[in-house]
Amino acid sequence: MNAPFQSRTAEPLALPQPYLLFLGDTQNPQFAKTAFGLRDWAGELCIGEYGVAGCGVSTGLPAMTPRQAREAGARALVIGVANQGGIINADWVPALVAALEAGLDLVSGLHARLADVPALVAAARENGRQLIDIRTPPPGIPVATGRKRSGKRLLTVGTDCALGKKYTALSLWRAFQARGIDTDFRATGQTGIMIAGSGIPMDAVVADFEAGAAEILSPDADPAHWDVIEGQGSLFHPAYSPVSLGLLHGSQPDVFVVCHSPGRTHIVGLETFPLPDIEAVIELTLMLGKRTNPAIRCGGIALNTSDMTEEAALAHIAAETERLGLPAADPIRGGAAFDALVESCLGAA
């Protein structure tokens, strides 16, 4: 369980905002991806950044001490580092204690838990602050019922892990908002939860309760309301397919968008497993998704073309749109292709 002075019921975690981003002693920007993700997608929630001796990375936000950040309105320090092993370095602890003493809660998505560091537990108790380990699901998650809920839902699914499901969901959510549509982004991973300020870490939920967690993540809503749900894993992934299936059944999406990286040929980290093709993902998602929503449909394809030139990316997007008979786009590149994908998702759901 989380720190003893914080309790939650079976509902998505809500985070104290805005944030001071903690960069630790990070030298490699790749290990600060959580901080950069927050800067890029929730910049209005980020007051500044804070590092310790040896830090060689910057998000470009103002450098602040915890006390300065608290005076500027910050309510929590977020560990913006995703280092190898997901550890809390001993050299960070004095800085984290200083944040608690300054009146900030601590938020972490690392595998190592804040609540397992005695100095942090003691400082949090003494100062009446919270230690929030994102990878701690709420207690009391129910078994899924399969009951159809009101409102509309979109789920991002993938041909593999780590190819843009979160960025696609965030892009669609913002596009829906720009069109004046009542919508929420529903986060299912640690960085997404920090961006949204709430959510459920699906990779930490016991398998039997995955679909139940997805049900409470996107509850009954106004018939015109859209929940855009961040996908996890892939139905074709030899290791991570359970979370993908639980999300699919529990989310009961009206629409799903397939996320794919064109240059990828095999499952990342499992090179003996070829990547499924987009058509196979559509077919399997429709077959399994109809179990809890017979009206499920594919809204289109989100392509991660970050390793392509602009010319090559646009040509590939056009070719895939024609080949599949569905709108394809790179959500980060945007443009007319992405507008077409958005309109397809909003069509007769």
TrEMBL record:
It comes from the Bacteria. Residues 143-336 form the D-glutamate N-acetyltransferase-like C-terminal domain. Residues 56-137 form the D-glutamate N-acetyltransferase-like N-terminal domain. Transmembrane segments: none annotated. SUPFAM superfamilies: P-loop containing nucleoside triphosphate hydrolases (SSF52540). Gene3D superfamilies: NAD(P)-binding Rossmann-like Domain, P-loop containing nucleotide triphosphate hydrolases. This is DUF1611 domain-containing protein. InterPro entries: DgcN-like, DgcN-like_C, DgcN-like_N, P-loop_NTPase.
